[in-house]
Amino acid sequence: MPLGLIALAIGGFGIGLTEFVIMGLLPEVATDFGVSEATAGWLISGYALAVVVGALGLTAATIRLPRKPVLMGLLVLFIAGNAVSALAPSYELMMTGRVIAALCHGAFFGIGSVVAANLVAPEKAAAAIAIMFTGLTAANVLGVPFGTFIGQQFGWRATFWAITAIGVVALAGIAALVPSLKAAGPAPSLRRELGAFRSGQVWLSLAVTVLGFGGMFGAFTYIAFTLTEVSGFAATAVPWLLVLFGAGLVVGNWAGGRLADRSIDGTLLAFIAALVVVLALFGWLATGPIATVVLLVLMGAFGFGTVPGLQSRVMRFAAGAPTLASGANIAAFNLGNALGAWAGGLTIAAGLGFTSPIWVGAGITLAALLVMAVAAATARRSQRADASAPAFPATSPTPVPAA
């Protein structure tokens, strides 16, 4: 395994920790700043929306720059944002720190996905991307529960100081282990990268990403409240339940990456369909502690198992200009996060209870399944049409139409 993949996973670990640890600390943050649960949830939605801006804006702005220095600069932004969050005396400044940290997120994973794919043979690209995203899953297995524990014991600010330190380590790892790759083919061009969005399959893939992750995060954003207020777990049990959720992420990410290298669309259809079933069962059985534990693990496995396939699908249909499309897909993941958190917050504010975000998530994920079915069907028709097109002899005077 190329050492550069380890470095990318380290960066993914720090960034994933920033994104997800707040979910286990929402009750403490809401109490400290004197805001409601739904208002505290905007620290998640605001982060996700800032990821969208950074994923598109920073990726486009740095398209001509060498990828390694760009990755390092993004981590500097990440470190600064988390330091602001740790020092924030008010909710507004906390949100500012979250936004600063979020700006690096999408561009880092978008550019990092391209770098990871270029470090291995083409037939192993999805598995390489899965290795990079292992940092994100490790953040859930180890970082989020440990960060939640630190926040409960020493205050949530201590958690963000720890994340800042991890960012420094990640920066050193990128500097030492990621090679300075030379781009193959013509020089990167923003016009060429934007041309990838002429593909209808790219847009369908982005829509599946928004809806698929929106469904999972509609359920997961307020999971700490669901576990304590509905399932009856003590607040001190939340970090360890998140360990189990994170274990599901790791297994799903690993399996999804390997299965997607065999069949991207088949893997995505199966995993998204399974996630719809899991969320529906979770909404129905959330009052049962045993069922909650099992379904929490399965939600992580099937939800995150779609990530390597979704990222690979966008890059495949973007053809020779994958960088901006890759960043756009990271933006789509986080637009989905914001959609899910917003929709879940609305149902809670309406007094529908802490299982209502799970049902919202199931509905959004069902929409993702329908869009994915359309995308897969149209892709198959296109492939059959290409295969049945007449082949012209090399010596034929008849011009071959452009594909």
Secondary-structure blueprint:
Layout: H1 3-33, H2 37-61, H3 67-87, H4 91-118, H5 125-154, H6 156-177, H7 190-195, H8 200-220, H9 223-230, H10 238-260, H11 264-285, H12 289-304, H13 307-317, H14 322-349, H15 356-388
Helix pairs in contact: 1-2, 1-4, 1-5, 1-6, 2-4, 2-14, 3-4, 3-6, 4-5, 4-14, 5-6, 5-10, 5-13, 8-13, 8-14, 8-15, 10-12, 10-13, 11-12, 11-13, 11-15, 13-14, 14-15
Structure description:
This protein has 403 residues and is mainly alpha-helical. It has 15 helices and no strands. The chain has helices spanning 3-33, 37-61, 67-87, 91-118, 125-154, 156-177, 190-195, 200-220, 223-230, 238-260, 264-285, 289-304, 307-317, 322-349, 356-388. Mean pLDDT is 82; it is low at 391-403.
- How would you sum up the global shape? globular
The chain-level structural class is mainly alpha
Tell how many strands the DSSP assignment holds: 0
The number of helical runs is 15
Largest sheet, if any? Answer: none
Radius of gyration: 21 Å
